[in-house]
Design brief:
heterodimer, A: mainly alpha, 4 helices, B: 8 helices
Chain lengths: 88, 216
Amino acid sequence: MPLAITAYPESTGVLRGIYDKMRERPLPPAYRPAHGGAPGIVTAHSLDPLAIPKVFGTSTSLNGSGPLAWPERELVNAITSRLNQCFY
Amino acid sequence: MIADPRAPLVDAPPRFAALAELARLLAETPWALSVAHRVGWQAAGLTDEDILQAVILASYFGHLNRIADAVAVPLDYDVRLVPPHADPTTAPLAPAPAVVIGVPVLALASRTATHDALAAWAAHVFAAPHAPAIRARVARLLGMPAEDVALDPEIGAFVDQLTLAPWQLGDASYTALRARGLDDAALFSLAMIASTAGMLSRIEVALTALGTTPSR
């Protein structure tokens, strides 16, 4: 049995509040999941709700600005994920 | 690139080729970087600020990959090209053969917002039990000096798998620890400690190794 993941519709309390704040972040449309809920990689952290703003606050500081251009950042992210064999 | 992430990027700008090499080395052998890599990437047009961002970004994505695999997160959207499946028979990454001696040649603190975000993240995750021993174990795997702190063998095995072979993470990774009564929150805490420690050690060892000259 995999570790539990709480998706947006099932979330309550502190976790729901954090998911809602995550949805308010400025984000390029390409990164918004079509299902309308919290992105899977955010829900992947749902067993530790208070870690979510810390992990994705780091993402904002890294992916939201340069000096690397957006395609260059995506290149690094894609190769890293491929080599780690993570196909999420 | 998806089919073979180690293949040279044909017709790519030199900056792209340099970033591709940087990402590959960060994922596989960050302890083997040297001053020659920094010089080569600079010749390809990367500034030290570019290199620093790429090092942190690759390490950060290494965390996201490990957590995604630790909880087996499903895809968010339909895909046209079905991604390859992870191959659990792929050999684990090699642990660092020796400690990397030196000091970071690029300063993480020069990216103030990132530095502060990582510090807040670490303070939260490392407040959990087992954190000192797991951090030390992960640091040694990645070539950073650390004390040999005793760690429960079954937790150690999980930490090693998450750090060196995240593609092998699965239900079986938790069987022994679940049998001892650890619930999902406790297991996830172990994963977060190990993954966060790996990210921070990967950054530190890379920024240190970039100032070293290979002896052979």
